[in-house]
Amino acid sequence: MANASIPDAGPTVNAAAGSAVRSAVETSDDEITRECVQAGQDVPDPASWRPGVRFDLDAENGFLVIRNDEYAAVCLVKNGKGTGIAGGVDTRRHVYGDLTAARPFDYLSSWNEGFPATGSVHFGIASSEVTAVSLVGPDNSVTPAVVRDGTFAAKSAFPESVDEPTTNYVRATLKDGQVIEGPFRS
Which of helix, strand or coil describes residue 156? Predict the structure, then answer.
């Protein structure tokens, strides 16, 4: 891990990725959230966490972005169970209170596939004003993200490189139709 809106309409598939990105509407996502919080270390206010967007890599493995009103984290899912929080909860960065009108989104994490990486699942947070998010790759390709309750996920062909300030850019659409672009990582 490199250490983040489509209205809830049921399952959604990221056609470019072929893997399922879906809204966290199933009751099981509430249970997975509880399992991840219990398995995590030093999780602030454990009872306040709720599920955000979920990304399934395959039938056994996936991720569920979980959040409360202050923080978000990426929960690891194995065989339908929450097994822990990738990288823990960073209470110094990726804080909802740090989102602004000029930057209503932030990088949360990425999961890079392979070595060297051939693609990546990207996770982020967004303010309540954001209704849609797309990642714009270095080649100007656009990958739509699934947005749920202030969290988003997308799979792109471009991994986030720890050697670069940022690889992907975010294009966020607000409720009033305004579009804001900026680097995925600040």
Answer: strand
pLDDT digits over 2-59, tens only?
Answer: 333 222 323 333 333 334 444 444 459 999 999 999 998 889 999 999 999 999 989 9
The CA distance from 161 to 163, in Å, is 5
* Separation CA 73–CA 89 (nearest Å): 6
pTM: 0.82
H-run or E-run covering 38:
helix 27-39
Q: Which residues contact 21 (CB under 8 A, 6 or more apart)?
A: 12, 13, 14, 53, 54, 55, 56, 145, 146, 153, 154, 155
Name the DSSP letter for residue 95: B
